[in-house]
Amino acid sequence: MKKKMVVLGGGESGVGTAILAQQKGYEVLVSDFGKIKETYKKVLTDFDIIWEEGGHSEASILEAEVVMKSPGIPDKAPIVKSIMAHGIPVISEIEFAARYTDAMLIGITGSNGKTTTTSLLGYLLQQANSNVGIAGNIGDSFAKMVAQQTMDTYVLEISSFQLDGVVDFAPHIAIITNITPDHLDRYEYEFEKYIAAKFKIAINQTPDDYLIYDADDPVITDWLEKHPVKSKLLPFSIHQKLEVGAYLEDNIIYINTDNNQFTMTAQKLALKGQHNTKNAMAAATVANLLNIRKATIRESLEGFQGVEHRLEQVLKIGNVKYINDSKATNVNATFYALDSMNSPTVWIVGGIDKGNDYRDLYPLVNEKVKAIICLGVDNTKLMSHFGNMVDIIIETQSMTEAVKIAYKVAEKGDNVLLSPACASFDLFENYEDRGRQFKNAVRNL
């Protein structure tokens, strides 16, 4: 008798897991409460994998020996509660796929910066001719890669939702970029639960493994004091000199790992802003640990062009810069974006608020923002927070309208910044869709 695996959710991680599970001899059912995209249906059909959409066949699902839950499905979904009540293990794609590869795993999590750090590290390892796969919360499904390719190393971007389903997963090198309140709606509005989820990346590490983290982040350092991990600690900081790990002094980055020192001028980093200096430090610390040539590390950090939808320069029209930061789905990410603006800014903000506290943004809005365009189904909270701070605050319901208004309001030398600080699901499919709509609207001006 084949073991039965049920995959909840027919998206990228679900379909990838189904392919790997089938290859490993499981009888597989993919079940999606909503609609499965045509492209994914075709893949499932080509692989002869049974799928259903528009609801769950509970009786069939409860016959499973293991369930992989896609990261977007909350634990409080009725079907998940039912599965757990029957004592069936519920795991994540990352947990499942890691069981079937001998590759070295590098896992990257954090509230912000994880996509940039993952992409930068992946690029760096590719420049060093490593046989590397970049997967997880970014690009291709990790499980599908494990099923179809043999890699020496995987660089995995991992969200807290993916870490929730971790049992034995233990990356050889883990990075926590930072931890700020985000997705609190999924963690009963308890910040502690969200922090604990992030630290699951290091929970199974051994003394032979490494944890790289931001030593300037009090949330991380406090947690580590109270909940020590077994792995070797490699902190990075832009404010304090460190014996091991990475630090910044007189605009020079110093990295010390296992008696191996790397140095580089921060000026030469392709990605600007303090947060990107930290992302570069985290990626370079891994590269230094892996003994990659110092010249390759420097060239990669000088040449990396950044990530789509993350402070992406779109166009300059009438000497106004249009910047797409659609990936800023929380307040902290928008804080970085506003902090990096060096001229008056028309700020497009809004979407589904995940329990945001906007007070951190007050000083930056007062200093840098000349007009606010709210782009969401419900903008009440934004209006009450920022209504008295700027002369112009306007509500819109579509990206085209928002960009047209921004075009009218902006003057020579200004920036127009899309940095929503919110999730996108009220008006858009996801943050990529939102970013692409912004870019198209700008190009159509």
TrEMBL record:
Domain of life, source organism: Bacteria
SUPFAM superfamilies: MurCD N-terminal domain, MurD-like peptide ligases, catalytic domain, MurD-like peptide ligases, peptide-binding domain
Binding-site positions, ATP: 110-116
Enzyme class (EC, first level): ligase
Family: Belongs to the MurCDEF family.
PANTHER family: UDP-N-ACETYLMURAMOYLALANINE--D-GLUTAMATE LIGASE
Protein name per UniProt: UDP-N-acetylmuramoylalanine--D-glutamate ligase
Species of provenance: Dokdonia ponticola
